[in-house]
Amino acid sequence: MSVTLTPSSIASEQRSTVRCASCGATLDDRTARATCPNCGGLLAVEHVAPKATGAALRALFDERLGAASYRGSAADRSGVWRFRELVLPAARPEEIVSHPEGNTPLVARDAVASFAGASGLRLKHEGHNPSASFKDRGMTAALTQARRIGARAVACASTGNTSASLAAYAAQAGIPAFVLVPEGRVSTGKLAQTLAYGAHMIRLRGDFDDCLELAREASEQLGIYLVNSLNPFRVEGQKTIVLELLQQLGWESPDWIALPAGNLGNTAAFGKALREAHALGLIDRVPRLLAVQAAGAAPFAAGFADDFATRRRVRAETAATAIRIGDPASWDRAVEAIRFTQGHVVAVSDAEIFAAKRVIDACGVGCEPASAASVAGVRTLVERGVIGRDERVVSVLTGHLLKDPDAALAARVAGGLGAEEPLTRDEALGHLERVLASSSH
Ligand code: F0G
């Protein structure tokens, strides 16, 4: 099947609708609202179905990936905009704010597979995005929307990655950015990025949940465009993590996709991606989602245990600071995602998260602490017999090791490495000889 790619194929007369999941209100796709103006509910974007479906749509996406990667448009080179029919079809080329992003590796490492007990485990490393986390996929869509609506400024609350990503994309778009972060709980790498990319940062005396409440209020009162993951366009961009990994697997669904879960925006995005991929015939079988929370910040795992009978909130505490969230904003959408995929939610302790992180780091792949939850959760469910040892599992690593260098060093010191005192030249040579001698037998 041959597909002609021209820059004009980027723009389309295809419109999308933005609909409130709670009251059903509909808004134009150029809305500046991040939540429903009538009832405050979560909004979702619905696209007109692309003309091609099934094999023809797969061929279109595959052709953009292969032939267009160096000579095509910037949008074709992006692992988000390659799937633009399912992201924001009406965005014109000049409106797209892209670094580009996506095109992240899917790797297999024996040490990690054997640690998790799942021989077919693969890692989708979203830390290879331009600001080193998966957030860039949602942010390219949100800042494109910000440009489309002529936003005067953009804002978010963040545990660090969203703020770094927002800062990078706002800089690219030339739009002022404001971020609210919890005091003392954001890792060095993320703070450094946010400031260096030029965002205005406010450190709040409070936790992430307090920051999000304030960000919502401030955006309402000051007319600043809110780009937290409750923003429906963020969700559209983040869907491409799933679309891209399915493409990398030749559109053969794995049995499970595991991901760390905090504010639940990504869980919601994964569910929506799978629903649409199945409805459009991109895949014929829906993988099961596994959302993994840190035990000290696990309201969603507690909800899963009673079939989501009630919405829960907790005061969150975990060393995996990225997912230190007690009152997840995308709860309802994430419940839908777990139900639709017959998925599972599990909580793992910080000790289990850091044990997984040490294994992922030591094979040269590396990730930030929260990301390792996706491997720790697989190990727990294999032990419990929920995931079969030979099932095909993809664990999503959401952020790069260098996001949190202090945690990476601490994990090695806890493992007995890296704590040595500085040595003189002679001591260093003696040390090298001893280490070589002990590692050669
Ligand atoms: N992994 C990492 C590295 C994160 O930064 C986050 C969220 C998650 C997982 C969880 O994703 O919230 O969609 O369930 N970080 C947000 C932030 C909250 O502000 O950077 P989620």
**How many H/I helical runs?**
16
- Average pLDDT metric: 92
Shape: globular
The string of secondary-structure elements, in order, is EEEHHHEHEHEHEHEHEHEHEHHEHHEHH
Helix content: 40-55%
Number of strands: 13
Oligomer: single chain
Short key terms for the protein model shown above:
binds ligand F0G, 6-stranded mixed sheet, 441 residues, disordered N terminus, single chain, alpha/beta
Please describe what this structure looks like.
By secondary structure, the chain is α/β, with parallel strands linked by helices. About 40% of the residues lie in helices and about 15% in strands. The chain has 16 helices and 13 strands. The strands form three sheets. The protein has a six-stranded mixed β-sheet, with helices on both faces. A four-stranded parallel β-sheet has the order 8-7-6-9. The protein has a three-stranded antiparallel β-sheet with strand order 2-1-3.
Question: What's this model, at a glance?
Answer:
The chain has 441 residues and is an alpha/beta fold. Helix content is 41%, strand content 13%. It is built from 16 helices and 13 strands.
List the helices and strands and how they pair.
Blueprint lengths: L15 E5 L5 E3 L14 E5 L6 H13 L1 H4 L2 H4 L28 E2 L2 H7 L5 E4 L9 H14 L5 E4 L3 H13 L3 E6 L5 H9 L3 E5 L3 H15 L2 E2 L5 H17 L7 E5 L4 H15 L8 E7 L4 H7 L25 H10 L3 E5 L1 H13 L6 H15 L9 E5 L7 H10 L10 H15 L2
Parallel strand pairs: 5-13, 6-7, 6-9, 7-8, 10-11, 10-13, 11-12
Antiparallel strand pairs: 1-2, 1-3, 4-5
Helix pairs in contact: 5-6, 5-9, 6-7, 9-10, 10-12, 13-14
The protein binds ligand F0G.
The site of ligand F0G has 23 residues, from helix 6, helix 10 and helix 14.
